[in-house]
Design brief:
Helix content is 29%, strand content 33%. By secondary structure, the chain is an alpha+beta fold. It has 3 domains: 62 residues; 66 residues, Thrombin, subunit H (Beta Barrel); 77 residues, Thrombin, subunit H (Beta Barrel). Strand 4 and strand 5 form a beta hairpin. The longest helix is centred in the first third of the chain and has 59 residues. The termini are far apart.
């Protein structure tokens, strides 16, 4: 009878040990769970970073492939700033006079013309995008050579073609390229694709809208095109 009595009398101690162990196990599980959650966040961040790097590598390869197709000398630059004023479509690139950059120089991404340099510093330059409301660009329809003027309307996704007569041979899907007139942009660079042509017989001109070929709000690495002889050359 002594052994059973001892076992029963020790039950409170065993229960207390069991509770302590259970409490410790719960605390350990909570700690492990927190540690795993932190590790998961770190791994997700690394995965996102790897995905970002992979996408950037693809964009750089596209840019380099575009550079190979250009006959003019080019310089790769990186966007390091944008205008805080949403009504001004201007960006800053990390190339300046010490790299040979000059005012009026054309800026492209892997898909098309983006803008032109308007201010040059020693190591950085300001670029006015073709979508800015103050910008106008001589273009021509690649299909038939008809010359037009593409103007910025303050939207990164639209250009307006002004004074297009109702009888003009222009259709949705036409590709617009720089005409070279005005000697501001080199001839033949992709500018935009016509997305809308509205003809109203009661008006003398058609409403024509085009979408820029360049990824105005996405491109980070760009090309500065040298269509002039190097200084002192």
């Amino acid at each position: 009878m002594a052994v059973p009595f001892y076992w029963v009398s020790n039950l409170p101690n065993q229960a207390e040990d069991w509770a302590d162990n259970r409490l410790m196990s719960r605390e350990r599980l909570v700690q492990e769970n927190e540690s795993l959650r932190t590790e998961n966040l770190v791994l997700k961040r690394k995965l996102q970073l790897n995905a970002s790097l992979a996408a950037e590598n693809v964009r750089l390869r596209q840019l380099l492939n575009s550079a190979d197709l250009l006959e003019d000398r080019v310089l790769i630059a990186e966007l390091i700033g944008v205008s805080p004023d949403p009504s001004m479509h201007q960006v800053i690139v990390n190339r300046g006079s010490e790299h040979g950059v000059y005012k009026g120089q054309a800026l492209l991404d892997a898909n098309g013309l983006m803008g032109q340099v308007v201010e040059v510093g020693q190591r950085s330059s300001k670029v006015l995008l073709i979508t800015d409301t103050t910008h106008a660009l001589p273009v021509q329809i690649n299909r038939n050579g008809v010359r037009l003027i593409a103007e910025g309307v303050g939207s990164l996704y639209e250009l307006a073609l002004r004074h297009v007569s109702n009888t003009q041979d222009i259709v949705v899907g036409d590709i617009l390229v720089s005409s070279g007139l005005g000697q501001r942009f080199p001839v033949g660079y992709p500018v935009a694709e016509v997305t809308e042509v509205v003809v109203d017989p009661s008006k003398p001109f058609a409403r024509v809208v085009a979408k820029p070929m360049a990824e105005m709000n996405r491109s980070r690495h760009v090309l500065l095109v040298f269509d002039r002889p190097p200084a002192g050359g």
